[in-house]
């Protein structure tokens, strides 16, 4: 199985609700490693580049506004099949469809504040990691 590094962002709502430790603990308990971790205020340009594929969609402005509305945590997560493992752990994008036991299924109620972002595939992870960790990771 491939060892991958992927990106997880804990969005402002998750930071505000003090879920940083809970989310990080679940990731570590799964057997994955935090190879990068920082609490930051997202720059608007970085958030716009992060969501660039959605630039023409009607929700683009609101997701960028939300991501830049408060502190976020950026995590680089490394391990076997990390990208798929993290996506499964986070649950469906819309929390009302997320299974119990997932981060969103256990802690989120609305798609507007679904607590986290995780890379969709290894290629997206590489692009996103370069945005949020330009200095590199461990």
Question: Can you tell me about this structure?
Answer:
The chain has 138 residues and is an alpha+beta fold. The chain has a single domain (3-132), classed as Nucleoside diphosphate kinase-like domain (Alpha-Beta Plaits, 2-Layer Sandwich). It has helices spanning 12-16, 20-29, 44-50, 60-67, 82-90, 103-107, 122-132; strands at 3-10, 33-41, 71-80, 116-118. A four-stranded antiparallel β-sheet has the order 2-3-1-4, sandwiched between helices. It is globular. The model has no long low-confidence stretch (mean pLDDT 96).
SSE layout and pairing:
Layout: E1 3-10, H1 12-16, H2 20-29, E2 33-41, H3 44-50, H4 60-67, E3 71-80, H5 82-90, H6 103-107, E4 116-118, H7 122-132
N-to-C order of helices and strands: EHHEHHEHHEH
Structural class: alpha+beta
According to DSSP, the number of beta strands is 4
* N→C terminal distance: 20 Å
Count of runs of 4 or more consecutive helical residues: 7
CATH class: Alpha Beta
Q: Helical content, roughly? A: 25-40%
Mean pLDDT: 96
Strand line-up of the largest beta sheet: 2-3-1-4
Radius of gyration: 14 Å
């Amino acid at each position: 199985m491939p060892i991958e590094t992927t990106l997880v962002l804990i969005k402002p709502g998750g930071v505000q609700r003090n879920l940083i430790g809970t989310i990080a603990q679940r990731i570590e308990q799964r057997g994955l490693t935090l190879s990068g971790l920082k609490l930051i205020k997202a720059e608007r340009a970085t958030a716009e580049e992060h969501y660039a594929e959605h630039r023409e969609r009607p929700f683009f402005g609101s997701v960028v506004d939300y991501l830049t509305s408060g502190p976020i945590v950026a995590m680089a997560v490394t391990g076997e099949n990390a990208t798929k493992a993290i996506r499964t752990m986070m649950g469906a994008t819309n929390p009302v469809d997320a299974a119990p036991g997932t981060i969103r299924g256990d802690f989120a109620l609305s798609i507007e504040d679904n607590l986290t972002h995780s890379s969709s595939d290894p290629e997206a992870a590489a692009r996103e990691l370069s945005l949020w960790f330009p200095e590199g990771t461990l």
